[in-house]
Amino acid sequence: MNTPPHVFSVRDLWKVFGPKADRVPGDAELGALDAAELRARTGCTAAVRDVSFDVRKGEVFVVMGLSGSGKSTLVRCLTRLIEPTSGEVTMDGEDVLAMNAGRLRELRRHRASMVFQHFGLLPHRSVLDNVAYGLEIQGMGRAERRERAAGVIAKVGLDGLESRRPGQLSGGQQQRVGLARALAVDPEVLLFDEPFSALDPLIRRDMQEEVVRLHREEGRTMVFITHDLNEALKLGDRIALMRDGRIVQLGTPEEIVGSPADDYVRDFVRDVPREQVVTVRAAMRPADSAESVSGPALAPDATVSEAIEAVVRTGETARVVEGGRCLGVVDHACLLGVVAGVPAVKEAV
Amino acid sequence: MTATASATPAAPLGTAGPAASLARHRTTLLLTGAAVLLVLGSVLVGHGAWPASLTVDLDGPLGDVSDWIIDNRDTHPLFLYFFGHLSNAVVLSVRGVYLVLLAAGWAGVTAAAGLIAWRVAGLRLAVTAVVAFLVCAVLGMWVPTMQTLALMVIAVLASVGLGAVLGLAAGLSDRVFRVLRPVLDTMQVMPAFAYLLPVVLVFGIGVPAAVLATVVYAAPPMARLTALGLRDADAGVMEAAASLGATGRQRLFTARLPLARRELLLGLNQTIMMALSMAVIASVIGAGGLGDRVYQALASVDVGAALAAGIPIVLLAVVLDRVTAAAGHRLGAAPRPGSARLGWAVAAAGTVVAAVVARTVASTGWPDGWTADITRPVNTAVGWMTDHLYSGVPVVGGTADWAGRFTTWVLDPVRDALQWLPWWAVLLLIAVLALLIGTWRTMLTAVLAMAAIGVLDVWDPALDTLSQVLAGVAVTLVAGFAVGIAASRSSRVEALLRPVLDVFQTMPQFVYLIPVVALFGVGRAPAVAAAVIYALPAVVRITTQGMNGVDPVTMESSRSLGATGFQQLLKVQLPLARPALLLAVNQGVVLVLAVVVIGGLVGGGSLGYSAVFGLAQGDLATGLVAGAAIVLLGLMLDRVTQPTRRRSGKGA
């Protein structure tokens, strides 16, 4: 029960585009229609349907879905870049939808900044001034904001490029500028809207590692939108999987991969290398007396692929140990069962 | 088996609804309808020009208005407290700038021009600017150049201010944009000449009228491009600014305006070029300066004097265009090392030093001994040309012979045919043409505009002007398409053409009259010739761009199917470049009309002459009616040839 406090709390959120959009959320009959029927009946498109979730302090909360699933609309509703049709959004207990323009600007200036898929950099400004842009909007003096910006630029690895224009940078470098701009205002939450989709695979991996590093160093809360399942699994502490505006499953990567909520999710995660997501805690079986004293020791949140390595190297069954106590063991059968996607048959041991 | 297979593709044709088949047979239906109406009309309505019973005589009322304005100009509060102040302010500011320019002297102005060009556009253009100003001085045209420049400075400042305000309003408000856009689009196709008469009516002939006509003519491109630039701002950047908590004002000044700076500079460039063009034409209503010298010289067919004043106009145009265009190209590049402020300080200091030094060493005026009079040698050359090339050249004939033959064999028959046609047949023709190319809406505007010309009782002169336009457009299109296609198929031709087109496109309309008068004398043929020369570059350029704009993949696939170059041109490039070619027609028509009307100054007759005559004789009623007819003719021609703007505009 000592879960960290919620940064964002979203309840029954709807965003409907189209004429007289506000009649759709309240209407159970309209709300039950699928996208094509709804459009035919009302001319409206429901981008976000009845979504509820909480973002805990310090976690990386990933919203994942294919294009058109409403994930980008959802993240924009958090800071009202898109005005939600109905529902409730609170940040640190404060009702975001009730904020006046000034209070909302304060939120955007100091508490939540966003990194965009297409960067959204100002082409006529240098890298330094782009990074300092958020501080400039806050009204900070030129010398002070430039000094702060220079510090952030060093943090994201753009030293030496301060006086370049965005047009002279590669895609990955531009997104580092976008990231630095968001970091410069030292926000409570970072919102990422498919930030790496436009980048080459290798650059994308670098940037993902950059985000992991930043999160480890600073522990800042992040809401991360992506259509890339591997990215979601790599970055997310928890993942909300969206389809047609609804969240179809919300859980840890392991829960999503290990126990898909429905056929859609199952289909989605079919090709995921499970051994890299599933932990030994889920794969272990109870130990008998001999096994609980010998063999390599693993932490419960070690992945199956780490366990495979240990088992192969020692040739013994690995123990799952927490606080000096043996919780269970993983052997060849348990581990292969995870890889094969079928539960291990206990009798075979 | 075979029967089923062959029947299948035919099925969709059979099942197509009546609407689809109507659309498919639109052309046939239109032509049939027109033919039926033609027969009906000839039986029922009969023959002849626009019936007198359908005209409205505006000479009387317009004359009264004009008289009333002249009588009340010094007493009525509207004039005393609004137009009077406006007029005084214009006169004072133009005078002020003029005095500053004179005080700076030739050395100061030339140094300033060179240094500004250096700061904005680099060393090469700085040299060009300096040379251009020195040539103006050498030709003995320093004072008129400064007069034109002073008028330009004020007119451009006012145009940019007015255009920016309108553009800002239209860029930020959808409602203003919807109202303003068609107005600006229409103003852009109006011949410059049409703007002169209304301002003269209010302000009388003189500098204020010239400046205001220039402002009205030159502000629309600024307004248009400002609005478009602001509306086209990258949505992603705007969202990013909003996500950082920017206020509306911060979004405008830190994001939306800077994002539009390319369009803003393009607007400035176009405004300056149009202002120069108009400042020269406005010599007809008392602008003074270089245009006035050309105007006076042309009136007495003194080609040498006209050229001496025309060359500075061209040089001014080239320098102004290149410098402002270069400023646009430099955007986006990293700033040069060194402080911008320091550079400008150097420029300012250099100007002051040059002015002071020249003043202490000599007087501010250009030394008399340094001028070269080109009037006499040019006139000698023209005289020789008149003697040897005008007529009787073996085989090819002389230029005057060409002009005469063009008049006899092309202009006269077209004019006579148009005037012979019954008035309703002309309207029908316009309607059919407009429907074939555009929509029923453009058709309606075109027919109404033409009918209004009839109502104004200028049917015959308008048809005369129309005949010149048609002849000019035909020549322009044949030559323009040929050259354009050649340029699109050979990069060498294009490379040769580009500098020529660049220079031709920057020259003010008025200047084109000088060489044609030298070659062909006065009359309708030279007016058409000037119009053709003026319109040709734009047509060539649009054609080339359209042909080069054809998707290379399509071209490659046709080549892979073994198409010959000619087949490619005929079956792929021309059909795909159709929108560009239609745009070229539209531009050609608009540009030819603009100059044909100005041709009234060199014996083009018809509407242009009536407008000039009205101005010269103070008979504003005649002039205004002619001006209105020019506007209506322009509207009609633009709408008839305006095919895709509305359809493609939907997506934009």
Automatic annotation (TrEMBL), chain A:
GO molecular function: ATP binding
Record keyword Transport present: yes
Taxonomy, superkingdom: Bacteria
A UniProt-annotated Pfam family: ABC_tran
KW Secreted (keyword) present: no
Domain ABC transporter: 33-269
UniProt keyword annotations, A-Z: ATP-binding, Nucleotide-binding, Transport
PANTHER family (UniProt xref): GLYCINE BETAINE/PROLINE BETAINE TRANSPORT SYSTEM ATP-BINDING PROTEIN PROV, GLYCINE BETAINE_PROLINE BETAINE TRANSPORT SYSTEM ATP-BINDING PROTEIN PROV
Assigned protein family: Belongs to the ABC transporter superfamily.
NCBIfam families, sorted: proV (TIGR01186)
Protein name (Swiss-Prot/TrEMBL): Glycine betaine/L-proline ABC transporter ATP-binding protein
Originating species: Streptomyces poriferorum
Record lineage: Bacteria, Bacillati, Actinomycetota, Actinomycetes, Kitasatosporales
